[in-house]
Amino acid sequence: MGKRILIIIGVFLLAAAVCCFFLNQKSRKEIHLRMTEIAEETLAAVPTDTPIPTETPEPTETPLPLPPTEEPSPEPTVISQLAPQDWQNWPELPDAIAPEIKAIYFEGLSEGNNPKRFSKVGDSNTMMPSFMGCFDSGIDTGYVLGPYAFLQEAIDNFQWSFSRNSRAARNGATAYDMDVYHWYEDDICWPYESALSCEYRLFTPSIAFIGFGTNDALLGLDRYEEHLRSLVEKTLSRKIVPILYSKADDLEGDGSFNEAAARIANEYHVPFWNLWRPMSALPNNGLRQGDVHPTANNISLCNFANEDLTQYGWTVRNLSALKALDRVWRLLNDLPVYGE
């Protein structure tokens, strides 16, 4: 009985083991199949052919842009360098202004020089009231422009400079006188200040007429040239534009003082007003007999509408001076230029 039970239990255990074996095999087979499916799905997702990697092209260097082609700079204004020894044939009025002089002019304005003021630096022929004073006396009563109406703009711009008594103009003055210590007995000019420096400090002009030579003839050419050059340098150092001009007389006998003035104008590229030229067309160069002062119509020194321009030195001198002032002012400010 006990032996039979043991056999039954053994058979049962054997059957169970066989079943577990087959079940286990089935599970393994299912797992294998599933893994195979996953593997196939994975392989399907991966390209069969390994793609040849596309070569990344090396970046082509973008050439740096060439600097822009510079436009050629405009040619500088050519200032004719006429021969000083040929000063008699120089034009009455300057026809251009050197760029560096124009730059000095505008620097001066930025530092306080007045664009509506000019100063007179010279001897008795540069003094009030004869020299240009008429232009502050009103149309008809002081001057008649006649065919020179375009000059009214300059008269309006520089009003009250014409009739001002300059500290740098005096009877019998030489270039030396204006270049050294002043002679005034008042306290307006400072001690050890030249008449020229005093005038510029008090009036702050932007332009200055500078003319000597008549009285300098007694002192000699070298001294005249030395101090005229110094006056030009001091004027430029104040950022004021000097207008050098020739004289109508020839006391020295060879025109050497006017030649020296023309030479200095060339050296410093400053405007040159050749007063000698229009004066030389008048009888006796427009000067009184045996004198160095211009002839005058006792009624008017500035009537430009009648025959006075063919007879009187002061009439020609005042018109020519006004034209020179107008010309330089217009050239400095790039305004339209009129007249001769």
Please characterize this protein's 3D structure.
- The chain has a 4-stranded parallel beta sheet with strand order 1-2-3-4, sandwiched between helices.
- β3 (241-245), α7 (256-268) and β4 form a beta-alpha-beta unit.
- The relative contact order is 0.13.
- The chain is globular, with a radius of gyration of 50 Å.
- α6 packs parallel to α7 (256-268).
- The longest helix is centred in the first third of the chain and has 44 residues, at 2-45.
- It has helices at 2-45, 99-110, 152-157, 175-179, 195-203, 221-237, 256-268, 276-279, 313-332, and strands at 114-122, 205-211, 241-245, 272-273.
- It has 9 helices and 4 strands.
- With 340 residues, it is an alpha/beta fold.
Largest sheet: 4 strands, parallel
Structural class assignment: alpha/beta
Strand content: 5-15%
Percent helix: 25-40%
Q: Count all strands and give the number.
A: 4
Series of secondary-structure elements, N-terminal to C-terminal? HHEHHHEHEHEHH
Distance between the termini: 161 Å
Instruction: Kindly provide the radius of gyration, computed on alpha-carbon positions and rounded to a whole number of angstroms.
Output: 50 Å
Number of helices: 9
Give a quick precis of the structure.
Helices cover 38% and strands 7% of the residues. It has helices at 2-45, 99-110, 152-157, 175-179, 195-203, 221-237, 256-268, 276-279, 313-332, and strands spanning 114-122, 205-211, 241-245, 272-273.
